[in-house]
Structures are given as C-alpha cells and as structure tokens.
Amino acid sequence: MSLADDALLVAGAGSLFAAGRSFAWNLISTRQTQFSYFDQLLGYPVWKGCKVLDFGGNIGTFLVRAGPNVDYDDYWCIDLNPAVVVQGRRNFPQAHFVHYNRYSSYFNPNGVRHLPVPDLGLKFDFILAFSVFTHTHRNEMVDLVEQLRSMLVPQGVFAFTFCDPRYDRSLSDPGLPSGTDVRKMLEWQQAENPSLEIEGMVETARHSNWGVFVDDELYVEPGNELCQQERRGKPGEYYFSYFTVDLMASLFPDATVLPPVSPEWQHCCVLKRPSSLPGAT
Length: 281
Known about the structure:
single chain; globular; seven-stranded mixed beta sheet; alpha/beta; 10 strands
C-alpha cells in the first residue's frame, strides 16, 4: 500500500481500525490498478492456471481487475498488516491470505524484526510487489528480493515497483500536475506541517541514488542503522524510500528495469529465478 492510499478506505471497513492518523497502519487500500499495470509491463502473459503471490497485496484488490484471468485458488497474498489479511479473507474466501508478522513501524509496529518470508510450501509462476519496497531500506529490500526469488518456479517472474526521484509523474498520467512522487509525498507532509521546507529535500533526493524519509526528515543513502529491522521507530511513523533506475540496475544486474505505464508513475524491476538455484535457466 502506498502512502497515497492512506486516506482511501474500503466502505464499511471502519471496524477494523482505530480512528486517527497515528493508527494509519490499519488503513485499507482501494487501489485497483495493480493487475493492469503488471499485465501490460509483463507483455500480457497467460495468468490462467498460474500460481500468483501478491507480496504486500493488502486486501487483494489485484483480483478485482484481474477478473477471470486469475483463478482465486491460485492466488496468495502475504501482508504485514493483520487487519487487511482478515478483510482479504472476507472479500475473497477462495484465495489465500497469509499474515507476515515482520516488523514495520508503519504497517506492523508489533511485528518481529528480521522474520523470514513465510514458507508457503509451493513455488510461484508470478511474484508481484506493488509499492512495497517504497517503504523499506535498501538492505531490507535486497534481502527480501533474494528470499522471494527463491520462491519462483524455474521459468517464474518476479516484478516489483519502486519510485525514482527524478521521474515526472505527469509523463505517465497527464492528469497529474508536473512533479515527482517524492514531491507529492512531501507536499502531503507539508499539509500537516506548514513550516516544513520541502524544496531543498526534493532537490537533494533528485541528486542522490536513494534515500529514506522518516516523517519530516530525509536520510540520503543511510547506513544499516536506519533499516527498520535494526531500529525501533515510533508506531505509525512515515517511512518512505526512493531508488533511481541506475541504482536498481546496479543492485540487480540481471534485472529488466521498465518505465511506468499510465496511469501509474512507479518503475518496475523484473527478475527471473536466480541461476544459482536448481532448475533455473
């Protein structure tokens, strides 16, 4: 779930979360563009009969646009937020929703740090992660990507999104004003804190390879001490990260990095099963 989804609620889901932004980790995403985004970027593959893991898939809104293209009993969703797992099971009882009790100050402040990705006992044709690594430190992202790639079938595909601080959102969605996702996030923060000076942070982000915003502070290429698995943040704090296309290409040299497709503005990193694993090609 992206920060832009923070104010969007599924109708009637109010009983699942407490009021107030300090409890934002219990909010439920209403984004429904995930399937069309990955479908287009992956070249309109055949989804039917394939096992799909939606990592950080919230309540499973991927399935809304997927329609009959994806069999519900072939769909698994892993999410940090226990409330969205409960709601996902209610909405799509034939699908599989698994709570991943890993620590996140924003989504799961009572979770366990360094908890491995759950072993689901099967391999997947597609593993997808939309706006998940926009909330992790670089080192945590690399660790989770390695774990998830090992869960692919030999010809499987892993695709995940990230925000490039240099990309102008209006290029993929002409209905949006010109600006980056970093600027949008800071403008949102500025609405709550009018004294926040954002221009300098926007420029700093544009001229750096990656960084993390924690509430109103920007940390450029921080050490591992800022990784959520190493530090204990305050519950509900914003933790937003960005990565340039060049950095992603250096971190994952065997990846294909693709530009956004309308109306989304996040780039996509596409990986196959590691060649070091049995059955990989």
